[in-house]
């Protein structure tokens, strides 16, 4: 939890401090774990604590059979989050839309 505060909450609460120090905060954080372990709850809590806009994307629902439509859906979601910055975009079940890589 302390790492989440360091990586997400502090930059959202004190952006001028980070800018003054010349420190670039991370642009993304990957929360992983089995279903029901609290990943969504943590993301919502951080958004609530920092006053950030919370945008939930359900991986399987964003997919489409039409070529380019899934990319458009994702692009619109990021544009909406950008309009409502600061924002936290939470992509649930991302493993369902990301291709598996060979090892």
Shape: globular
Global Rg: 15 Å
Look at the structure and give the CATH class.
Alpha Beta
The residue ranges in which pLDDT falls below 50 over 5 or more consecutive positions are none
**Fourth-level CATH superfamily:** P-loop containing nucleotide triphosphate hydrolases
**Would you count the extended β strands for me?**
2
Give the termini distance in whole angstroms: 30 Å
Q: How does CATH name the architecture?
A: 3-Layer(aba) Sandwich
Q: Please indicate the percent range of residues in DSSP E strands (runs of 2 or more).
A: 5-15%
CATH fold field value = Rossmann fold
Tally of domains: 1
What would you call the structural class? mainly alpha
Biggest sheet character: 2 strands, parallel
Helix amount: 40-55%
In spatial order, strands of the major sheet run 1-2
The H-and-E topology, N to C, reads as HHHEHHE
Total helical elements: 5
Pfam family, one: AAA
Protein name: AAA+ ATPase domain-containing protein
Keywords: ATP-binding, Nucleotide-binding
InterPro entries: AAA+_ATPase, AAA_ATPase_domain, ATPase_AAA_core, P-loop_NTPase
């Amino acid at each position: 939890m302390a790492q989440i505060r360091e990586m997400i909450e502090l930059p959202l609460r004190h952006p001028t401090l980070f800018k003054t120090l010349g420190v670039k905060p991370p642009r993304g954080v990957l929360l992983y774990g089995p279903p029901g372990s609290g990943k969504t709850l943590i993301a919502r809590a951080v958004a609530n604590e920092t006053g950030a806009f919370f945008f939930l994307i359900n991986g399987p629902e964003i997919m489409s059979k039409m070529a380019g439509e899934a990319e458009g859906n994702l692009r619109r979601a990021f544009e909406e989050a950008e309009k409502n910055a600061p924002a936290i975009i939470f992509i649930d079940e991302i493993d369902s839309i990301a291709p598996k890589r060979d090892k």
